[in-house]
Structures are given as structure tokens and as C-alpha cells.
Specification:
Layout lengths: L1 H16 L10 E4 L6 H9 L5 H6 L15 E4 L4 E3 L25 E3 L10 E3 H4 L3 E6 L5 E2 L4 E5 L11 E12 L6 E17 L4 E8 L3 E2 L3 E4 L6 E3 L8 E7 L5 E2 L4 E4 L12 E6 L4 E2 L9 E2 L4 E11 L4 E8 L4 E2 L3 E4 L3
Antiparallel strand pairs: 1-2, 2-3, 4-14, 5-10, 6-8, 6-13, 7-12, 8-11, 9-10, 9-13, 10-11, 15-17, 15-24, 16-23, 17-22, 18-21, 18-24, 19-20, 21-22
Length: 340
């Protein structure tokens, strides 16, 4: 009896310690567009341009390692990429959406993985005024690298705590509204991350944890809050209209899974999870009938795509492009809150 109890106890403990079944990772399906290369896709989606030899080696049908063809479909996982064979149907996800299907009654969610880090390549003027500055290092160096300690002058030092993550930035060119031409913010380039180790009466002391470029005195800094893995889709208030004012990483034309920045924010009632329709008005055309010779005719607008708000400030917001039509999206195109 004692042996039996011991065996039963052992089986119970083994069952408890067994790892839970792994949840299947849901990839995103990306459609290759004109000009895409394995190098560029590897850099954009997994932040490693040198990943492309692995991608090429696993797909020997690609003859030119730098050239793939528009219309090809890729499975984007978190950290790896697969090319979908022509005769294989991508059943994991819709080819033009990062939002998966949900069961009846469940809230629809959109996945946000590391590939969407570009959402913070633009800041509005109000946020720019709150940036801190790297003012010195513990050994008085001008250029810094990973592992070194730096001192930061912060606008709100009381908000700093040990262990807090900081994003290191280079403030770029001023961005003007494409219609009004008024200043709306700045482009920013991500330089790396630092972690606060100490807060003195005058500065925050932090260790540089990661850098993608040289870190210099005068580098700007802001508290870092990572994007969540996914966000729920929320009904948007009707009647909100605005413009695309900036593009992720300063791109001129945008496509699926790029990030746009719009001139709508929380003060307008916009929220994270709201969906936006993107469109462009066609120019009016002259009427040809004699009785209408002095009239101009309005034609239907061009539907360009759909996006979901992933970050929302007071007066601006960042949105991920989920669906894109057959025309590129440009600064100055119009947006409005989508209705179901």
C-alpha cells in the first residue's frame, strides 16, 4: 500500500510539472511589393538585415538572393520569416490583415510584435518639449557605447525611478502639416536604450544597454513604454476626420504593415484600437453636357486602405496599416474613423 501511494504521488507530481502545451504562434502574412529585397525585408521585420542568407538557403527556388517578386507571400513570425510556396494556401491569416478571426462574442484583437517598433519615429511638438538630454558620462567621454554610464538632465526628474527604461533618440527635421504647413512635430531616429540605476537631486544616472548607432552628448531621451503584444479593436467615434502627417522612418509612400501618423489624438476622442479608413479625393472634372457646361462634377473618392490606432497622444496618433489598396499612401491623404 505504501509503495502504491508513493507511485501515485510520483505520477501526480510528474503531471503537474509537465509543461503546458505550446500555443501555436499565429504568423502575419505579408505580400511582397515592387522593390522589396530579402535584405530589406529581413531588416524591416526582424531587425536583422543579415538574416537574409538563412532565408535564401531555406528557399532554394529563389535564384537571385536580392530579388523577389511582387505578389509573393511571406509568413512573418516573431524572429523568422518563411516564404509561402505558390501552390500553398496561407491559411494562418488573411493576406492583407494582421487581425485574426475571433470566435463569436470575442473581442477582435490585432497582434503587435517587434516589427512595429517604428511607431515612435515621430513625436509631436508637445512631446518634444518634454525630452531629456544626455549631458555627461562618468569618465567625461563625448561618445558612448553599450555598458557605459551616462547622466541625463530630465524635464521631470521626480518621475524617474531605478530600473526604468529610457529610449535614446536623435531629434530629426521638423515636420509640417501637409495642408496647413504649420509645424506639427519632429522626425526622430531611434539610437538605443538605457536603464536608470540611480536618481540624484539633479540628474538621472543610467547605463546604456543597447545602441544601434553612436551615442553622443546631447542625445535626447524619453521614458520607454513597449507596445503590447496585441490590442483590442474598439468602436470609433463617428465623424472624426484628419490627415496623414508623417510616415514611419520618413518614407514617402506607404504600404501594408507600415506605420502612419495622423493629426487626430485623444483630445479629439480618438483611442488606441480605433480603426481608420484612409482615402484620397479625386479632382473634379468638367461637365460635358451643354446644360451643365459651367458645372464641375465630383467623382467617387479613392479608398486607399485601413489602419488601426496603436499609440495615441493628445493631438496626434500612430496607426498600423492593416489593408492597402493598389495605390501607395502618401502624406496629405485623408483619414476618418471607420464605422462597422
Amino acid at each position: 500500500m505504501k509503495i502504491t501511494r508513493i507511485l501515485l504521488l510520483g505520477c501526480l507530481l510528474a503531471a503537474i510539472c509537465l509543461p503546458a502545451p505550446a500555443v501555436a504562434e499565429e504568423p502575419i502574412i505579408y505580400t511582397v511589393k515592387k522593390g522589396d529585397t530579402l535584405w530589406g525585408i529581413s531588416k524591416r521585420f526582424i531587425k536583422d538585415p543579415y538574416y537574409w542568407p538563412n532565408l535564401w538557403a531555406n528557399n532554394p527556388a529563389i535564384g537571385n538572393p536580392h530579388l523577389i517578386y511582387p505578389g509573393q507571400k511571406l509568413r512573418i513570425h516573431d524572429g523568422r520569416i518563411e516564404i509561402i510556396a505558390v501552390d500553398e494556401k496561407p491559411a494562418e491569416a488573411s493576406p492583407d490583415s494582421a487581425a485574426g478571426e475571433t470566435a463569436a462574442g470575442e473581442t477582435k484583437r490585432v497582434r503587435l510584435v517587434g516589427i512595429y517598433g517604428g511607431a515612435r519615429s515621430f513625436i509631436d511638438a508637445n512631446e518634444a518639449d518634454l525630452l531629456g538630454t544626455l549631458v555627461d558620462t562618468d569618465d567625461n567621454r563625448y561618445m558612448m557605447a553599450e555598458g557605459e554610464t551616462a547622466f541625463f538632465e530630465m524635464k521631470d526628474l521626480s518621475a524617474m525611478t531605478p530600473g526604468q527604461q529610457l529610449e535614446l533618440l536623435e531629434l530629426g527635421p521638423e515636420v509640417r502639416h501637409p495642408i496647413t504647413r504649420q509645424p506639427v512635430g519632429y522626425r526622430v531616429d531611434h539610437l538605443g536604450f538605457a536603464e536608470v540605476t540611480e536618481v540624484t537631486p539633479s540628474v538621472a544616472v543610467a547605463t546604456i544597454k543597447d545602441s544601434v548607432r553612436e551615442i553622443l552628448r546631447g542625445t535626447r531621451v524619453r521614458p520607454y513604454s513597449p507596445l503590447p503584444e496585441s490590442i483590442p479593436v474598439k468602436p470609433a467615434p463617428g465623424g472624426l476626420e484628419g490627415f496623414v502627417i508623417a510616415a514611419d522612418e520618413g518614407k514617402l509612400a506607404l504600404s501594408q504593415l507600415d506605420v502612419i501618423h495622423v493629426d487626430l489624438g485623444s483630445t479629439d476622442g480618438l483611442e488606441i484600437g480605433n480603426e481608420l479608413d484612409i482615402y484620397r479625393n479625386r479632382p473634379e472634372i468638367e461637365a460635358t453636357l451643354p446644360e451643365n457646361r459651367d458645372l464641375m462634377l465630383a467623382t467617387p473618392e479613392i479608398h486607399l486602405g485601413k489602419a488601426i490606432v496603436i499609440e495615441c497622444l493628445d493631438q496626434t496618433a500612430a496607426a498600423l496599416l492593416l489593408k492597402v489598396g493598389n495605390q501607395p499612401i502618401l502624406r496629405g491623404d485623408q483619414v476618418r474613423t471607420a464605422t462597422p
